[in-house]
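In the current project phase, our protein records have gained a structure token line. A sample record follows, to show the layout:
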Amino acid sequence: TKFELTSDSAVSVDATGGEVIITYLITNPLQGVEVSSSDNAEWLSEGVAESGKIVYVAAENSAYEAREATVTLLYDRFEATVTVEQAAAVKPDAPVIVLEKSVVEVPAEGGSYSIGYTIENPIEGVELGYLGTDDGWFGSFEVTEDAIIVDIAPNTDVDSRTRSLGFVYGEEAQCSLTINQAGVVVDLTLDKSAVE
């Protein structure tokens, strides 16, 4: 009597799961002796013996890591092992924040500015959030589903000012928007007639 595995010693199944078929050949079978199998994984169904093969069903792998199990076939005093390798679930692409522009130039008078944005690979139920606190020179600040609206107060100083605003979407996507506001231009032209 001879028992041999005709499947490869490693069998692969994709992340969605499905049948895992392990084939074997018995030469000069023993009367009344059946092939039995066992495995060490909860995600494999109990093996069903058919003529020349054992059929398992692998459950879907929703984890982002591959996994493997060992199946052992027994026939009388013969033993064979097969490694069942299941692929990892495919991770969705990470979201990306795309700003219409990343720098806004604002005159000293200030004003209201709307900067459009889109989210590539959006996550259901997640909204764009603001990282940080207002430092006082914004009149108001609002994030809508497709725009960042900033009301900039007038700059009464001669010096320009800059502020970088940070935004986050989900756990990974971040971006920044820079606001550059000009200072007041002071006209220092002398009226000669007033001096004389």
